[in-house]
Amino acid sequence: MIKFFLMVNKQGQTRLSKYYEHVEINKRTLLETEVIKSCLSRSNEQCSFIEYKDFKLIYRQYAALFIVVGVNDTENEMAIYEFIHNFVEVLDDYFSRVVNNV
Amino acid sequence: MVASSSSLKLQDLIQEIREAKTQAQEREVIQKECAHIRASFRDGDPLHRHRQLAKLLYVHLLGYPAHFGQMECLKLIASPRFTDKRVGYLGAMLLLDERQDAHLLITNSIKTDLSQGIQAVQGLALCTLSATGSAEMCRDLATEVEKLLLQPSAYVRKKAVLTAVHMIRKVPELSDIFLPPCAQLLHEHHHGILLGTITLITELCERSPAALKHFRKMVPQLVHILRTLVTTGYSKEHSISGVSDPFLQVQILRLLRILGRNHEESSETMNDLLAQVATNTDTSRNAGNAVLFETVLTIMDIRSAAGLRVLAVNILGRFLLNTDRNIRYVALTSLLRLVQSDHSAVQRHRPTVVECLREPDGSLSRRALELSLALVNSSNVQAMIQELQGFLESCPPDLQADCASGILLAAERFAPTKRWHIDTTLRVLTTAGTHVRDDAVASLTQLIGGAQELHAYSVRRLYSALAEDLSQQPLVQAATWCIGEYGDLLLEGSCEETEPLQVEEEEVLALLERVLQSHMSLPATRGYALTALVKLSTRLRGDNKSCLDVELQQRAVEYNTLFQKYDHVRAAILEKIPLVERGGSQVDEEAKESKETAQLSEAAPVPTEPQASKLLDLLDLLDGPSGDAQHPRPLDPTPGSALIHLLNLPCAPPPPAPIPNLKVFEREGLQLDLSFVRPPGTPTLLLITVTATNTSGGDVTHFICQAAVPKSFQLQLQAPSGDTVPAQGGLPMTQLLRILNPKKAPLRLKLRLTYNHFGQSVQEIFEVNNLPVEAWQ
Fold this sequence. Notes:
- The complex is a heterodimer.
- By secondary structure, chain A is of the alpha+beta class.
- Chain A has helices at residues 25-40, 77-95; strands at 2-9, 14-19, 49-52, 55-62, 65-71.
- By secondary structure, chain B is an alpha+beta fold.
- Chain B has 33 helices and ten strands.
- Chain B has a five-stranded antiparallel β-sheet with strand order 3-4-5-8-7, with no helix packed on it. In chain B, strands 6-9-10 form a three-stranded antiparallel β-sheet, with no helix packed on it. In chain B, strands 1-2 form a two-stranded antiparallel ribbon.
- In chain B, helix 7 packs parallel to helix 9 and helix 17 packs parallel to helix 19.
- Chain B is elongated, with a radius of gyration of 39 Å.
- Chain B starts with a helix and ends in a 9-residue tail after the last strand.
- The relative contact order of chain B is 0.03.
- The chains are: A alpha+beta, B alpha+beta.
- The A-B interface holds A 13-17, 22, 25, 28-29, 32, 45-51, 76-79, 81-83, 86, 101-102 and B 18, 23, 61-63, 65, 97-99, 240, 246-247, 250, 254, 286-287, 289-290, 293-294, 297, 325-330, 360-364.
- Chain A: One of its GO terms (biological process) is intracellular protein transport.
- Chain A: Its main location: membrane.
- Chain A: It is found in: Endomembrane system.
- Chain A: It is a peripheral membrane protein.
């Protein structure tokens, strides 16, 4: 089950966050900073799945924007990886110009 | 001024925020705007309310608090205008959750909106319900949602199915309501509704065994749906990189997995389909691989045919060779799950797994390490350990601990020869000594102790290793222990298995001195070194005896002064008696050793300890730091005994009153005595030494003593000195009991003895009476 969905830029600012289980607002910021730190520190050579506490993080980078999805153990990681791309494509089709502009 | 900013459109606000160059500037803009929004809410302007809330929601998305908008959401939802409802429901989804009280107030609005006929509004209500519906709301509105499941409009049906999923998650008892429509919904053509239905069925099956049984009947239908998906050609609407709706395929496969688990019949129906999916899916892109991965997971979980399982493992093997790291990661994880059930199949891929150890990526190498450790068995142990040790040298520090313990464990289980085992342990200690678990030293000492023929060899290896490197504490501890025990073998000079190493006594002593004085040594290590020195004094031959003892005395005095300076360390050291479960030497650290060595130089030389009993029982009696003022008592040279009881030595004031010994058992010449010690540094600790003496004509053999205490106590039995008490007043057997009494409760002790005496086996169980009061107060 997907626990949260984040879009964060390279400077570490959250651009979109959606939590599917209730998380306190101060815990959210903490979670986001930690998640971003682990994603930013990975190079291109490494795989897109990280284990973080009791979540699995699946992230994809699009130019300067990171999309991170936190799931629990029962999910198929590669399907989520595909799902992230699907999401970006839908945004692209619908809004015709998806860009992170900061 | 108020009017102009209240009409600030959302887009303008976004523009303003974007223009802020720094985080601080952005915060300023937002705070200003929030103040305006708050004012506007207070004024209650109905026309612009939705715009204000929209801005507030945007700000919330960026992570700023927006709780003051909650009541506004309610007002907007209740309004008849669609623009208001739209923003109101969105706000409700984002800002209201179960923990807010305002939450329940929207139930009525949702109910009204669900039953009136406008699709868009029904859609909004359903969305909100599925995102934030609490248990009570779900119960109230379940029937409404069920009606909507069969509505003519596909848009509403889709949203209704999603809401049903949420309701089942919140309130599993509602499954009765949602079970019947599922059969019909499976006939849908619309993939969105189909996906929702499959998810709904999955949730139902996971929560209710009755539902599981019910849906097993639908396996053929599911198989049919999946088969159509896989075999139909390109469909523009649903194709993702050439695979037709991989998300739906994955979901159906997951449901099939749940239905087929532990159920022969369903599994059989699925076999062909799974084989077909596995072979037909295009694996050049990630979408295909995702479906393939799910197929493999399903095959592994259900009662599949043997051929199918082999196919699954082979697919995983192929994944391992793929260049894409994501796929390799996924393959390693699944192989780890499989290794228990299909061990031989996974073994075939061992070389590839070992390759993955060399990956620079942390997640991958961790998985590869776990899998490699699981794959070690008696036939490949030497090769695997070789690889793993290579990995240990180069891996990142967080993996070193796991790797080291894994290697040691595997070596323990599968070691072909003792010498190989010792070599391996030694190598691990030299490479990653600081990361091994605490009992590694204990197991190494026990291993060496047990391998008589390898004593010379091991002491030599350890000596050379120690001479090179003093920093790895476990290695130093093990090496000093070994030198202490087998120092004479070291000095002999010849051993077939290593090159001849000529070692002089002074070198050995110099090395031990270095260990003592090195500031890298932990107190425990110093303890080991000092004990080694003491033991050596009894073993090393002749002429240098006097200078040896003088050296020892000097060491001990130096050590004592060290202690005087670091009194806080002393308490910690004196408490520390490492637990030895399998027999080995007890190491006890104390300043009294200075007295001890002084005694040794005066008394008759104590004979070498017999191999069998390596216990050097030094019970600590704490005195003030001025230990040297004592008059040491001459030792009782009990024949062959290396057991030194310091119990009855006079103590300097203020002494703890020595607790009288207690005779607890006597039968046919076998006598059991208890002696008590309460170390002053630890008021809750009581040390009891059980001594068994035999004055009869026959030996007592197979002597085992067990003890039991009330629940509030903690008892540790340490290994006895032996299991034979020889006849005619021979060497007494001793055993140490450590009792922790945190509640200072009255001590009660029950003892159980079993032994053979005069050809009969005896068992005695008795409670110890008349325990002295000082033992627990």
